[in-house]
């Protein structure tokens, strides 16, 4: 070995590696320089390669520079509909424009995952976002179809489809495909395979307005994903390619072929056995036809009010915030009582149909323009429908003489049988029902009305009906129609009088009342219903039971109209300043709504405590966190870890005190007489403790009843949307009260017959209901016309026992005569004894008052 070799061997290894690499690089550089100088094709090839590389880098930056950050998917939340529950916790409705249900990975059946990976991306679990083989095949297919107008096979992996559906869009171009591939690799670096496929299966559009496999399982098979059979899973897996096409009956044969191909791919990939494949292939598609019946209570007016309040608070779409109504996935607990809602709907409809009677067809529900194209399609777009017995909504497409052709929203055509009104024309939207081989015209009542039922102790609205059917008109007459309440406002006039020092036994004149309105208007005189000028003097109770206008005006003017208006405002009948201190307002001349009136009557039952009416109990976000609740009371100490020996913590009473509790009970107690012997005696046969008041506004244009029990207060009115005379025979007693009666009968199990309880500080005293005098020697009976009744008084306001003055003077003289004879002795001039010995006056009469 030479000295040179020894020196080289003694050098460190890394030094020798650098030396040899340097030599190689130097040799390569020399080769490149030589070819560059001597070979022009080499120079051109190098320049072309450099230019291509620069273009590739520039293209990469151009394509990727504005791509969304894949990390946003870490916090991405699927748009979800809001779910509405009733008071019992059952789902009653969904606010959705797209069917969506978000599942977790653990909720996805393994065979459903296998079906989708077999159909869409068999290498999903191993690739890094791009399937090279699938991409090359897609490129070849794209080139072969250039100029043919046909769309090339996508060749996208599940990750690429996720990027397209959520972050890029569905533009058909090479640029979009390249951007999709770049983003797919980024997604794979951010999310796990489980997260990717879960997000994909929750977002993929699958037809019938369904997004995600759970919504599609419901739309096509009315099942949850974990209940799907193998052939049903395979069918859902074919839908991403052409969801709208494969769901049409005309394409069922193609869908069946494609489904069976997917089953074969599942077998080839080792996910199912040959026996399972063959058994699934032998099954029909089994799709449900038509629109799937959604679980929804028939409470359109109530649910629309809930929706309006939610949108006002949280917004409508995803752009409005995380908790929007149509994207936030809210869980909404409402106060809707479906049993009471059905009773309210049926009771109001029955009243409207009773009033309509035999008036015949009153005109179309709506009118479409025949010049705007297919009228069946127009009808479908209008969303008009009806849910009453077997009635349906149709549009008149033409008429000839006394016959007419009609079409339904689904495109089916038919003809009207029977008479066709002369006024009916093409474009009229009408209600019809089956009759023989045709259809018969039905008349939707022109008259309308509103109904509300409420829990008086909490303000929770239990039922709401704002017209005949919300599908025909979304105008909610329970909350939006301002109507004159007529005599239903009188109890609050009487409440003002009681607060001013009157009692239910105060004698009030039932005589004509006139007052001077000024030089321009002159004198105004009031009369009772029917024009009677009244006469005599009666206890306050009588005026309320018999709805005496003149007595009411006397009470209002003696109390002061300013104070009466303040009472109206305190219980929420009118906003501050809405009513003026004129006597006409004491008789119901102002405008208000059914909801306001029912809430005011609830205040009476609730011993003067006013609660705001609510339709929403609380709202939870998609994670279950409560983000709104109507009851905001705090319970201090309710969540203590250990009891500290103090009294049990309790919530404060709900609402605020706006009326003396004793006054409120006095009014309720008088209003029970309206049922027993007043203007609403037709409700007496219900045989449960009730209070209430009828009302008829001038015209009459509105017929009312508001009342209830200690636990449910309800009210309704009937009237035309454009107020006009209902007819001289219409009154609250014969039109409004029957609605309440039907409501109670339809929900009889909810009325327990509990009596009204008096608050502290009320004395129940026996009085003569005709004279208002106190009674000591008689007792009330169960007879409605009993002369003696129990009346409610505040302490020291009950009537005193009175005697005629001449009787008192005579008794006084008799006692004095006896005393004189005793003093004069048996021989005196006055020794003659009376024929009868007087009894003990104080004991017999119960005291001298």
TrEMBL record:
Residues 89-266 form the Glycosyl transferase family domain. SUPFAM superfamilies: beta-lactamase/transpeptidase-like, Lysozyme-like. It comes from the Bacteria. It catalyses: [GlcNAc-(1->4)-Mur2Ac(oyl-L-Ala-gamma-D-Glu-L-Lys-D-Ala-D-Ala)](n)-di-trans,octa-cis-undecaprenyl diphosphate + beta-D-GlcNAc-(1->4)-Mur2Ac(oyl-L-Ala-gamma-D-Glu-L-Lys-D-Ala-D-Ala)-di-trans,octa-cis-undecaprenyl diphosphate = [GlcNAc-(1->4)-Mur2Ac(oyl-L-Ala-gamma-D-Glu-L-Lys-D-Ala-D-Ala)](n+1)-di-trans,octa-cis-undecaprenyl diphosphate + di-trans,octa-cis-undecaprenyl diphosphate + H(+). The chain crosses the membrane at residues 45-63. Coiled coil: none annotated. It is found in: Membrane. Residues 449-709 form the Penicillin-binding protein transpeptidase domain. Keywords: Carboxypeptidase, Cell shape, Cell wall biogenesis/degradation, Glycosyltransferase, Hydrolase, Membrane, Multifunctional enzyme, Peptidoglycan synthesis, Protease, Transferase, Transmembrane, Transmembrane helix. Residues 819-849 are annotated as: Disordered. Pathway: Cell wall biogenesis; peptidoglycan biosynthesis. Its EC number is 2.4.99.28. In the C-terminal section; belongs to the transpeptidase family. This is peptidoglycan glycosyltransferase. It comes from Alteraurantiacibacter palmitatis.
């Amino acid at each position: 070995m030479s000295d040179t070799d020894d020196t080289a061997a003694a050098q460190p290894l890394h030094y020798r590696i650098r030396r040899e690499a340097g030599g190689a690089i130097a040799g390569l550089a020399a080769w490149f320089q030589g070819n560059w100088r001597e070979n022009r094709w080499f120079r051109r090839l190098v320049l072309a390669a450099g230019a291509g590389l620069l273009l590739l880098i520039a293209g990469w930056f151009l394509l990727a520079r504005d791509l969304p950050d894949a990390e946003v998917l870490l916090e991405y939340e699927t748009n979800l509909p809001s779910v509405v529950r009733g008071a019992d916790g059952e789902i009653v409705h969904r606010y959705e424009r797209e069917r969506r249900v978000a599942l977790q990975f653990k909720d996805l059946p393994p065979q459903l995952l296998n079906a989708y990976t077999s159909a869409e991306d068999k290498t999903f679990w191993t690739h890094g976002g791009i399937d090279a083989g699938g991409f090359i095949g897609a490129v070849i297919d794209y080139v072969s179809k250039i100029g043919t107008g046909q769309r090339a096979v996508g060749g996208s992996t599940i990750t690429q489809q996720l990027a397209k559906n959520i972050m890029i869009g569905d533009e058909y171009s090479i640029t979009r495909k390249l951007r999709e591939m770049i983003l797919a690799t980024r997604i794979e670096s951010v999310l796990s395979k489980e997260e990717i496929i879960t997000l994909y299966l929750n977002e993929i559009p699958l037809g019938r307005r369904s997004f995600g496999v759970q919504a599609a399982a419901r739309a096509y098979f009315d099942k949850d994903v974990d209940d799907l059979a193998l052939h049903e899973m395979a069918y859902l897996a074919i839908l991403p390619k052409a969801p709208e096409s494969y769901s049409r009956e005309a394409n069922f044969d193609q869908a069946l072929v494609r489904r069976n191909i997917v089953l074969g791919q599942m077998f080839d990939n080792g996910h199912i056995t040959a026996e399972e494949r063959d058994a699934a292939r032998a099954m029909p598609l089994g799709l449900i036809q038509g629109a799937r019946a959604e679980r929804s209570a028939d409470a359109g007016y109530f649910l629309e009010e809930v929706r309006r309040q939610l949108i006002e608070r949280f917004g409508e779409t995803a752009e409005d915030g995380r908790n929007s109504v149509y994207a936030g996935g809210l869980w909404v607990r409402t106060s809707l009582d479906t049993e009471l809602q059905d009773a309210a709907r049926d009771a109001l409809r029955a009243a409207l149909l009773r009033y309509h009677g035999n008036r015949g067809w009153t005109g179309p529900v709506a009118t479409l323009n025949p010049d705007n194209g297919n009228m069946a399609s127009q009808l479908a777009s209008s969303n008009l429908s009806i849910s009453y017995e077997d009635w349906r909504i149709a549009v008149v497409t033409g008429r000839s003489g006394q016959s007419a052709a009609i079409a339904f929203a689904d495109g089916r055509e038919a003809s009207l049988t029977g008479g066709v009104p002369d006024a009916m024309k093409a474009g009229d939207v009408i209600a019809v029902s089956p009759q023989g081989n045709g259809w018969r015209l039905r008349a939707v009542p022109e008259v309308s009305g509103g109904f509300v039922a409420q829990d008086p102790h909490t303000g929770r609205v239990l039922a709401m009906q704002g017209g005949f059917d919300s599908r025909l008109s979304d105008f909610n007459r329970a909350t939006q129609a301002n109507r004159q309440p007529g005599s239903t406002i009188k109890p609050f006039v009487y409440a003002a009088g009681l607060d001013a020092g009157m009692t239910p036994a105060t004698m009030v004149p039932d005589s004509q009342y006139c007052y001077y309105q000024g030089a321009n208007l002159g004198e105004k005189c009031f009369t009772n219903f029917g024009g009677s000028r009244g006469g005599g003097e009666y206890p306050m109770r009588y005026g309320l039971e018999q709805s005496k206008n003149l007595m009411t005006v006397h009470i209002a003017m003696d109390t002061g109209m300013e104070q009466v208006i303040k009472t109206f405002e305190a219980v929420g009948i009118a906003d501050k300043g809405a009513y003026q201190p004129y006597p006409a307002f004491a008789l119901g001349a102002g405008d208000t709504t059914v909801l306001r009136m029912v809430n005011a009557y609830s205040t009476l039952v609730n011993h003067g405590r006013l609660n705001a009416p609510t339709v929403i109990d609380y709202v939870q976000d998609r994670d279950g966190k409560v983000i709104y609740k109507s009851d905001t009371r705090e319970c201090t100490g309710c969540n203590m870890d250990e009891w500290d020996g103090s009294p049990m913590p309790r919530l404060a009473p709900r609402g605020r005190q706006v009326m003396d509790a004793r006054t409120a009970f006095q009014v309720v107690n008088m209003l029970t007489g309206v049922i027993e012997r007043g203007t609403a005696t037709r409700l007496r046969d219900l045989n449960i403790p009730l209070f209430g008041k009828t009302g008829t506004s001038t015209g009459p244009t509105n017929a009312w009843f508001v009342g209830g029990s200690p636990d449910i207060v309800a009210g309704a009115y009937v009237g035309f949307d454009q107020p006009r005379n209902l007819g001289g025979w219409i009154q609250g007693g014969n039109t409004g009260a029957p609605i309440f009666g039907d409501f109670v009968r339809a929900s009889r199990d909810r009325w327990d017959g509990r009596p009204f309880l008096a608050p502290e500080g009320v004395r129940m005293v026996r009085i003569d209901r005709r004279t208002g005098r106190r009674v000591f020697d008689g007792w009330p009976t169960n007879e409605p016309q009993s002369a003696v009744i129990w009346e409610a008084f505040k302490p020291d306001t009950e009537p005193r026992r009175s005697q005629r003055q001449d009787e008192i003077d005579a008794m006084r003289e008799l006692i004095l005569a006896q005393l004189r004879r005793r003093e004069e002795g048996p021989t005196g001039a006055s020794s003659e004894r009376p024929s009868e010995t007087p009894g003990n006056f104080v004991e017999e009469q119960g005291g001298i008052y």
